[in-house]
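Why do we care about 3D structure at all? Because function follows from shape, and shape follows, mostly, from sequence. That is the central idea of this module. The next example makes it concrete: a single protein chain, its amino acid sequence, and then its structure expressed as tokens.
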Amino acid sequence: MLSFLKRYSGFFLLLAGIVGLVVLNVTQPDRETAISVQTTAASAVPLGNTAGSATFSTTAPLTAVVSDYVFVDLHGAVLRPGVYRVRSGSRIGEVISLAGGTVAGADLSQINQAKIVGDEMVIVVPWVLTVPDSEAEEPAAPSTICVDVKGAVLHPGMVFLPEGSRIDDAVKAAGGMTAEADSSSLNLAARLTDGQIVLVPARAVGTAAPEAGWVPGYGYVAVRGEVVRPGLYYVKVSTTLREILQLAGGLTLEGSAGNLNLDEAIVPGSTITVLTETEVFALLHPTEGGGTTPTEPSSGNQKTLININTARVDELDTLYGIGPVLAQNIIDYRAENGYFECIEDIMRVSGIKSSIYENIKDDITV
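And the structure:
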């Protein structure tokens, strides 16, 4: 028997080898399938935690080294930084997508997202570089210009506007046009320059007002003296003196209304002059100021002189040779140039010559 085994030992070894190969070929597909299932399930799951730790997940244990996958360490401005296992040939952009994409403030300008990743590659998605507050440039302040608005506007004077403003903006800043304004010669769309004068003309005296601009019950009142915005105002006839002074910005620090009846309604064509406290005191107490007491008329037959500095249109119209047109010229001159210093100054008014002055000089005063 022993000699038999020795004689056929080689045959038995060959047979055992063939059986072993058959068994190995039968069981190998199942093993490969198991490995494939494990690696496929793990390919879309980061092996690190969301804080970027290198600790591997225990939910997808590796039972074999698979050459079709690589490991990538992803850092920076992504939603879920960490270690990722991806298929060979994957791109950087695909890894970033697996990590949930970038967060606000990420800077991908220097990253080639189409680049193929390699094993043990480290990818850092940087944040947008911010300039420290100390180095940041201060924003340029908007440039402003100053223009002087004159003429038929509610609040003539200086106005400050942004650079690039138009004439229409300046007119609106000055309160808008009065009902007597004539804007036919103005280009309201023209661009303004610093230091420019914007003149809104009024219609000539005696010309008919267009129906669109005519407002019944309104009239001009000139405000002079110690007010913030002296000028010519176009207001309702029922407007009180108090309201007129408010339109003019109120009194200056030196102004006083002690000699004025603030509840009195204004008279169109009149001039309101606000005096200083010293002037009001001297007016109300002439003897205490060293002046002389005005002489009172001794009889009812003494002529009452018309003060050309305060008279209304209807009062000036009573003068010999002065009709409604010349009376309005006197009011307009007064509004533009202030009070007459002497009665002879009335000859400076357009239309009043020396012959008319000789006829009225004994009937007027200042």
